[in-house]
Design brief:
A hairpin with a 4-residue loop joins strand 1 and strand 2. This protein is an alpha+beta fold and about 500 residues long. It contains seven helices and 26 strands. Helix 1 crosses helix 4 and helix 3 packs across helix 4. The chain is globular. Bound molecules: heme C. Heme C (HEC) binds next to helix 2 and helix 3.
């Protein structure tokens, strides 16, 4: 019975992805080869009639710059203007292909199997030098979250297995008994050369209560899964799932005192896989807790703009799960009163900036359009109406007409940082570390596909500095800092995940 669900869900997912995946890349490659390679070279190396498109670009290397170079050309220098012969979407496609090639981010390969290349010596960066020290190895290949407890231990979730404790000496405990169940019936589906995890009922973020020292509460967000529990599960004869937030305590290796903090209406549980389920938690200074629910609807676009569904949203509740009176939709009927922001596609990171009192999130765009967002109550982040990225078939993101939703571009909150081409941005921290004083307030942002760690300096909602601190390290699934200013990275890998720590050069 469960098999048939996976089959059904993946057939549907495949139909959707197939439609979208089959044309995008080949189209932009074909466009380039037919129209541009003669002057710029098949591999962007340049040719007698044109310039190389690798290295420094004379007219700028942002998406907007390149689109402009292609559209307007420079007739006198021998670069045709393409705005009349190619559509705007085609020009953006080719531009994206150039950018992806320049950044070496093929999005046909998610780099699960690349060898882990952890630098042994000192890593030199603009403001701080550091070493990378391995804290723990031997974790399952697909972890999701790490968090530091005040006593120096780390908690880690393995998506399909459970919660473990990493001791100060790096010893990894067995799975904590009694946590919400995690489901391991995951499969890697290879679609048009792309490897993608598929599963339902994973463990996501774990985080101690801000006053953990006194109350021992630990919050855990997970994909709650059930069978024969709503109309869809009965019709499809399959399991369904939805993010659910609980808290409990850990005593003698067991999860105890569990309380449900937030749960969706069972009718909203669905068959959509957990890859884009979001699943991060953040606490603010005022007794609130935020969490993300990504695309867990019926497909990639239905209901995300709708206040009566829980998915495609960032939610906010009080620590005990009650609704804060100042929530944007508090007291309204027929909506999820926990909704804080809407229009999210695949939220990856969620952090509260305790210094400035602001909530921030990262999320995956489709092809291009990875985002760093300042999350403002009741704001709409645009999916699936609008994105700076493109659908995988090369068309612009614009499901508004299909959904019967009219909107103005000014209704949509634009990202503070647009990461195009997509490095597959993941989790981040806003650094408060004393070990890296010059990074204080900066965003340390991980990535999956690009396997890199970035430092972003954001001032007044503008990106003012971007540095790649580590390149090609590993798929970085999570980043955390502890009270001593240690910065931990959770590295995903097919041969076993590991936790590493950045050690400032000069500190112990
Ligand atoms: C007939 C030759 C020719 C063709 C065809 C051509 N280009 Fe160019 N392109 C050039 C030349 C020459 C320049 C340098 C122009 C200048 O220096 O002002 C250039 C410049 C550019 C630049 C700006 C480079 C920089 O350093 O900022 C981009 C981007 C670019 N071309 C993209 C394309 C794309 C995409 C296509 C196909 C759709 C294309 N070109 C087709 C000759 C060509």
């Amino acid at each position: 019975m469960f098999r048939s669900l996976i089959a059904l869900a993946s057939v549907f997912a495949m139909m959707v992805s197939k439609l979208s995946f089959s044309q995008g890349v080949p189209d932009s490659i074909a466009l380039y080869n037919e129209n541009c390679a003669v002057c710029h070279g098949a591999n962007f190396e340049g040719a007698p009639q044109g310039v190389p498109l690798l290295g420094d670009l004379r007219y700028g290397d942002s998406m907007a710059d390149i689109v402009n170079s292609i559209s307007s050309g420079n007739q006198r220098a021998g670069m045709p203007a393409w705005q009349d012969s190619l559509s705007h979407a085609q020009i953006r496609n080719v531009a994206l292909y150039i950018l992806e090639s320049r950044a070496n981010v093929s999005y046909r390969d998610f780099n699960h199997k690349q060898p882990l290349e952890i630098p042994e010596g000192i890593v030199e960066t603009e403001l701080h030098n550091f070493r990378i020290e391995t804290v723990a190895t031997g974790l399952d290949a697909l972890p999701f979250s790490i968090t530091a407890l005040p006593d120096g231990r780390l908690l880690v979730t393995e998506k399909k297995y459970g919660v473990r404790i990493i001791g100060p000496d790096g010893a990894v405990s067995n799975h904590i008994e009694g946590t919400p169940r995690a489901y391991a019936d995951i499969s890697m589906v290879t679609l048009n050369g792309l490897g993608n995890e598929r599963g339902l009922g994973w463990l996501f973020d774990i985080a101690p209560h801000p006053d953990y020292g006194n109350n021992g509460w630990i919050y855990l967000l997970h994909g709650d899964r059930c069978e024969d529990c709503n109309a869809l599960s009965r019709r499809a004869e399959s399991a369904v799932s939805m993010n659910r937030l609980v808290r409990g305590r850990i005593a003698d290796g067991r999860w105890v005192d569990e309380e449900v903090i937030w749960q969706a209406d069972l009718e909203h549980y669905g068959t959509m896989i957990d890859v884009a389920a979001g699943g991060r938690i953040a606490f603010d200074n005022n007794g609130h807790l935020y969490f993300s629910v990504g695309m867990k609807g019926r497909n990639n676009f239905l209901g995300i703009q709708d206040l009566s569904t829980p998915w495609g949203k960032i939610h906010r509740v009080n620590y005990d799960g009650s609704i804060p009176a100042e929530n944007p939709y508090a007291g309204r009927d027929d909506v999820y009163q926990s909704i804080y922001t809407i229009g999210h596609r695949s939220p990856q990171g969620l952090e509260y900036d305790h210094q400035n009192g602001e909530l921030w999130g990262t999320e995956h765009g489709p092809r291009g359009g990875d985002e760093v967002n300042h999350l403002i109550p009741a704001a709409n982040y645009g999916w699936p109406l609008y994105s700076l990225g493109m659908n995988y078939n090369g068309s612009p993101v614009d499901f508004g007409e299909r959904l019967g939703i009219a909107y103005e571009l000014s209704d949509i909150q634009q990202p503070v940082v647009d990461l195009t081409p997509s490095p597959a941005v993941s989790s981040f921290v806003i650094s408060e570390s004393d070990q890296f004083p010059q990074w204080r307030g900066n965003f340390l942002v991980g990535s999956l596909k690009a396997r890199s760690l970035y430092r972003l300096k954001i001032e007044n909602n503008r990106l003012v500095e971007r540095e790649t601190l580590l390149e090609g390290l590993a798929r970085i699934r999570d980043i955390e800092q502890d009270a001593n200013g240690n910065i931990f990275l959770l590295l995903e890998h097919s041969e076993g995940a590991r936790v590493v720590r950045l050690v400032a050069e000069g500190s112990e």
